[in-house]
């Protein structure tokens, strides 16, 4: 009897926090007509089988419940229907499935989609359409839940389209799961293969643009040195600079924020109360932006004290366009993580404290109380997660630390881990390649979020300063013992080593990577540099999660290294800003990428959204002006320093009736944490609409349902090292040179590397030549120490004529 594997006993995984996607991993109803052949054997239960089940149907389910399976005469058509009923339930479900055999289970084709439909009557709201698939190597396994069935006293038709059939799958089985007391009676099942997509439309740009997209540098420049970018639910972009890595602005108390309107191209200055340079930020469920910590102080001139993070926290309100102060965090967190949870709370780890040491305190923002909770109310492991650790919310409420971070080596161990807040345990996850060279790599939860796959791209190490790498790693968190596996290498572009761009060679890749989820279900990666705040790399490509391949596309003409951002706009374009090389300069130019999907002719339009306030488990209706193939929610960006752990793309299974489209919203707030989302409708050619904004509310909608039957086994039995709560401690020692910059030279916004690239010889002349090629200009020596031997004549100026004449 097939069942959904159960989670280990004793784990506090409530329906509220651990319900799996009832809309798992889906591509959606498309405009083409399906083929006429019904692939279901005995779709109306009219043919008797052996025992008490009709031919090609079997009993299935699991858990502690009382149930009956019955063939009844109350049919939609013919003389028979199937009734499954639960009269008592503690956990689990029961379902009638197509028999998992070569004789009965429909044959399917990799990459194809199938339209499924059935007629039903229900006396419970807790019933859903469940799929299993047969892998030619691994055998039968759970695939996904497609649709929750509404209560229906009369015969009602339910229809939905499957995702593309995964590689290695040759057959599928499906039926209706009942996971609450009550019954579901079903009849007249159909399964039809979707016709091949319509041909691509005519190109509306040049041939190169239609293949690779187009970049445009805007005539208006970004007025602030912004390194934090947040796309607000009114379509505007919050660009936070604080002091902008400029110590003179810090000393003057000049802190900046700009509000950019993509529709008009205008920037508005926003009064900024504190230095939010290198803060953390996340969008709360009501659309306000929580900004946590920031820069309390720059490193001392003699290099004995590093950056300091304050405890202050602020909220930016898009309606009033103002900041307001919250209560303080329990610790300073310069460069913190910021992850919103399924109940609307926010958790933060890592960063530097007020005394420049590393914070080992987890801070938790309570959505209910609208404040940071005191330390004693927050589970603590007293672990140091580093700077901007990428903490991605998993579908059961745990957090996946992907290994992407900022500045130097990774955490001890494998460099990646799963953190279980409820159990307060950390389990290492193996497989991350060269884990100490993933400094300022980028990690994204791949589309769709229901698939629970994470891609990590590139990286380097600002301490040892090797050439950045081309590594990518992919992990499937639905596996019982998940581990990273090597992905395809990053494509190579050109690199400017000081004398103009030249082709990359060998294993040269990039750090400071940006990655953006696109509405066609792919990922744009762009920007980067070969070394610590030096040697920009010009390369852009699109990653396809379905094929796990990169496709090089048009390249951003602007350097986008340290302190750059890239993010999706509601019209489907991508905006990039910033670049802050080691010489302290700043790139104020803004680039806009138009992906190929916007050059394929007319776009579909969402002509109405019946309700913009959505609840979990809803069916929401929209109207479109022409047929669409899929729809999804994309959480708007809140990105900085190659980090946006809250970025996600959530599929919405759909049913189509002419221009009316019903969207099935996930019941799992961990898959789509509460907040504002961009709703895109996408046609069969991958062309998206302009987004509509919808508000997905908190998990209250689940309070009347127990969906634990849909907690499917994944990341359930990791076998690597497990760490429980450690001894309470104050902080983690961190070197003042954590940013990879030697502060004995120049001002605090200038980064003379503590370690030069490997090809630069350790001589005064070679180091000074490299600094000259990278436009460092005149460098004052701070104090009497000269650790890099750049001031050989002791005149207080590095790399002067007396320092390099005849010096090796």
Automatic annotation (TrEMBL):
Biased composition (Polar residues): 729-738
Transmembrane parts of this sequence: none
Listed InterPro entries: Gal_Oxase/kelch_b-propeller, Gal_Oxidase_central_sf, Glyoxal_oxidase_N, GO-like_E_set, Ig-like_fold, Ig_E-set
Region feature (Disordered): 717-739, 783-808
Biased composition (Basic and acidic residues): 717-728
Keyword tags: Signal
This protein's name: DUF1929 domain-containing protein
Annotated signal sequence range: 1-36
Chain ranges of the Galactose oxidase-like Early set domain: 603-695
């Amino acid at each position: 009897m097939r069942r959904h594997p159960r989670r280990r006993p004793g784990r506090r995984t409530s329906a509220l926090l651990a319900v799996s996607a009832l809309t798992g991993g889906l591509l959606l109803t498309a405009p083409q007509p399906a083929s006429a052949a019904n692939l279901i054997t005995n779709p109306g239960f009219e043919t008797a089988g052996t025992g008490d089940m009709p031919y090609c149907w079997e009993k299935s389910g699991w858990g502690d419940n009382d149930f009956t399976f019955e063939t009844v005469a109350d049919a939609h058509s013919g003389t028979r229907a199937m009734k499954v009923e639960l009269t008592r339930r503690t956990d689990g479900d029961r379902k009638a499935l197509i028999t998992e055999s070569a004789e009965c289970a429909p044959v399917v084709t990799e990459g194809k989609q199938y339209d499924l439909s059935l007629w039903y009557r229900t006396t419970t709201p807790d019933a859903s359409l469940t799929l299993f698939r047969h892998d030619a190597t691994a055998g039968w396994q759970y695939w996904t839940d497609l649709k929750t069935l509404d209560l229906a006293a009369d015969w009602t038709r339910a229809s939905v389209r499957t995702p593309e059939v995964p590689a290695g799958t040759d057959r599928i089985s499906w039926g209706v799961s009942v996971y609450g007391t009550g019954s579901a009676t079903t009849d007249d099942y159909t399964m039809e293969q979707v016709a091949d997509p319509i041909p691509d439309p005519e190109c509306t740009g040049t041939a190169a643009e239609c293949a690779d997209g187009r970049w445009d540098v805007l005539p208006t420049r970004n007025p602030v040195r912004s390194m934090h970018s947040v796309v607000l639910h009114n379509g505007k972009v919050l660009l936070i600079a604080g002091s902008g890595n400029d110590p003179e602005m810090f000393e003057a108390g000049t802190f900046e924020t700009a509000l950019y309107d993509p529709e008009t191209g205008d920037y508005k200055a926003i009064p900024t109360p504190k230095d939010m340079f290198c803060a953390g930020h996340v969008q709360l469920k009501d659309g306000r932006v929580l900004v946590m910590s920031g820069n309390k102080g720059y490193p001392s001139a003699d290099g004995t004290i590093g950056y300091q993070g304050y405890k202050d926290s602020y909220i930016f309100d898009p309606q009033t366009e103002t900041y307001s102060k919250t209560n303080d965090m329990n610790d300073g967190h310069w460069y913190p993580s910021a992850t919103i949870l399924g109940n609307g709370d926010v958790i933060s780890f890592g960063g530097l404290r007020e005394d420049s040491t590393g914070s080992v305190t987890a801070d938790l923002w309570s959505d209910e109380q609208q404040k940071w909770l005191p330390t004693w109310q927050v589970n603590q492991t007293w672990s140091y997660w580093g700077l901007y650790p990428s903490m991605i919310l998993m579908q059961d409420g745990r957090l996946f630390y992907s290994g992407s971070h900022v500045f130097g080596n990774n955490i001890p161990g494998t460099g990646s881990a799963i953190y279980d807040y409820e159990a307060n345990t950390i389990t290492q996850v193996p497989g991350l390649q060269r884990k100490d060279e993933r400094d300022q790599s980028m990690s994204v939860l791949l589309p769709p979020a229901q698939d629970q796959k994470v891609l990590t791209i590139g990286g380097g190490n600002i301490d040892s300063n090797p050439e950045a790498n081309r590594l990518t790693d992919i992990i499937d968190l639905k596996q019982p013992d998940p581990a990273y596996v090597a992905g395809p290498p990053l494509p190579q572009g050109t690199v400017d080593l000081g004398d103009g761009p030249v082709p990359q060679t060998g294993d040269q890749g990039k750090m400071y990577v940006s990655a953006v989820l696109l509405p066609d279900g792919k990922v744009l990666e762009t920007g980067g540099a070969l070394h610590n705040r030096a040697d920009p790399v010009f390369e852009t490509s699109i990653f396809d999660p379905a094929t796990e391949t990169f496709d090089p596309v048009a390249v951003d003409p602007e350097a986008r290294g340290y302190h750059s951002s890239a993010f999706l706009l509601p019209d489907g374009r991508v905006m990039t800003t910033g670049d802050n090389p080691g010489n302290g300069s700043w790139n104020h130019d803004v680039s806009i990428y138009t992906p190929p999907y916007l050059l394929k002719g007319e776009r579909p339009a969402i002509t109405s959204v019946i309700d913009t306030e959505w609840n979990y488990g809803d069916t929401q209706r929209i109207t479109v002006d022409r047929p669409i193939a899929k729809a999804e929610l994309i959480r708007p960006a809140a990105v900085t320093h190659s980090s946006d752990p809250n970025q996600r793309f959530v599929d919405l299974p759909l049913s189509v009736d002419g221009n009316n489209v019903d969207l099935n919203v996930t019941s799992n707030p961990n898959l789509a944490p509460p907040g504002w989302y961009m709703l895109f409708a996408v046609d069969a050619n991958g062309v998206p609409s302009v987004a509509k904004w919808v508000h997905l509310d908190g998990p209250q909608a689940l309070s009347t349902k127990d969906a634990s039957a849909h907690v499917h086994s994944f990341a359930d039995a990791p076998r690597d090292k497990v760490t429980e709560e450690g001894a309470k401690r104050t902080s983690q020692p961190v070197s003042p040179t954590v940013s990879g910059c030697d502060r004995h030279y120049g001002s605090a916004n200038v980064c003379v590397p503590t370690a030069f690239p490997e090809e630069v010889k350790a001589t005064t002349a070679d180091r000074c030549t490299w600094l000259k090629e990278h436009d460092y200009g005149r460098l004052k020596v701070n104090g009497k120490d000269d650790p890099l031997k750049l001031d050989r004549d002791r005149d207080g100026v590095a790399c002067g004529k007396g320092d390099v004449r005849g010096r090796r």
